[in-house]
């Protein structure tokens, strides 16, 4: 299936989820993530969910990261150039919803992409090769291209990977792992 059809199908499928299902599956995803070989790292980039899009609730992962005393980094979107600014999350970080319903830090200590060790990535669906589909603006592909080569890219999804995504671009950056409520998929050795 091509990207546009998959994007439309999985947006609709996610919209059908109840709040209770989202919470349960998000907790299961956080618990599954504890099996990943990523917890000795220092800087973790975490997305804050867009509630109206029924994204994975990353609050559970945030608690795990804070409990392990990790540095958590969150993003602020620039829709003019489709880039992300990365801010260290602290007790003083003020978070507000932007015009698109994305929770974002207002200001803070900027962290460069090269400093990040692990990036948790929002997505609609991936395939069995680690290709992923988001909302189609390319924010994460541009961001990940600036990270160090060994950054761990962890997708979070309510859904199992599909067999194949057609129309993969040379600028698309694959996942290393996909965490679903019931399983972890590893794409690179």
UniProtKB/TrEMBL annotation:
Signal peptide: none annotated. It is an enzyme of class 6 (ligase). Its EC number is 6.3.3.2. Keywords: ATP-binding, Magnesium, Metal-binding, Nucleotide-binding. The keyword Nucleotide-binding applies. The keyword Nucleotide-binding applies. It comes from the Bacteria. Its cofactor is Mg(2+). SUPFAM superfamilies: NagB/RpiA/CoA transferase-like. It catalyses: (6S)-5-formyl-5,6,7,8-tetrahydrofolate + ATP = (6R)-5,10-methenyltetrahydrofolate + ADP + phosphate. NCBIfam families: MTHFS_bact (TIGR02727). Belongs to the 5-formyltetrahydrofolate cyclo-ligase family. This is 5-formyltetrahydrofolate cyclo-ligase. It comes from Psychroflexus planctonicus.
């Amino acid at each position: 299936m091509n990207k546009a059809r998959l994007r439309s199908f999985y947006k609709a499928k996610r919209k059908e989820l109840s709040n209770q299902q989202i919470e349960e599956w998000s907790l299961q995803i956080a618990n599954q993530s504890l099996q990943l070989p990523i917890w000795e790292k220092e800087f973790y980039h975490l997305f804050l969910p867009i509630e109206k899009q029924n994204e994975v609730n990353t609050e559970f992962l945030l608690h795990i990261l804070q409990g392990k005393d990790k540095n958590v980094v969150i993003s602020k979107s620039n829709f003019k150039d489709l880039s992300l600014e990365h801010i260290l999350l602290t007790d003083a970080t003020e978070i507000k919803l932007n015009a698109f319903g994305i929770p974002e830090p207002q200001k803070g200590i900027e962290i460069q992409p090269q400093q990040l060790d692990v990036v948790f990535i929002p997505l609609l669906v991936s395939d069995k090769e680690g290709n992923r589909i988001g909302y189609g603006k390319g924010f994460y592909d541009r961001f990940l291209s600036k990270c160090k080569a060994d950054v761990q890219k962890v997708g979070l999804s309510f859904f199992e990977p599909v067999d194949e995504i057609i129309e993969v671009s040379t600028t698309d950056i694959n996942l290393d792992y996909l965490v679903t409520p019931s399983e972890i998929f590893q794409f690179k050795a």
